[in-house]
Amino acid sequence: MCLDTSYYLKKYISLLLIVCMLGGTGIVTYAASLYACSLELGIGSNGLAVTYTTRFSATASEIGVKDVVLYEKIGNTWYAYDIPQGSRTNTSAYNGGGTYTNAVRGRTYKATCTHYAVYDGVTYTLESETREFVYN
Length: 136
Description:
Largest sheet: 7 strands, antiparallel
Shape: elongated
Oligomer: single chain
Low-confidence stretches: 15-22, 24-29
Mean pLDDT: 86
Distance between the termini: 91 Å
Number of strands: 7
Strand content: over 45%
Number of helices: 1
Order of helices and strands: HEEEEEEE
Structural class: mainly beta
């Protein structure tokens, strides 16, 4: 019995080509996104420090934080205070913050904000909230 090796060789090469085509070209694509964004509370030199960082995976036409709110718990009620927002243009990162000078030692605080980036006319957002923090 004689085997036609050229037949099997053609099948093997065809299969190898299919596997190579399905394996891709090595080009990696990714979606633009916000990442490593943070919102933190801490002890400042003259009050409660609020700091935030917003990062985007590409150069955004605008990047920053908005709707920054500091909450103070008095008794069982939370009171909200707007904190200034900020932004930068034509960059991939924004860092900012401020100090709440009316903080009272022993009271509990928390904060929320919206990180955002505008890229190719699309606005990307990510919500952040801190844990409760007792100012001492």
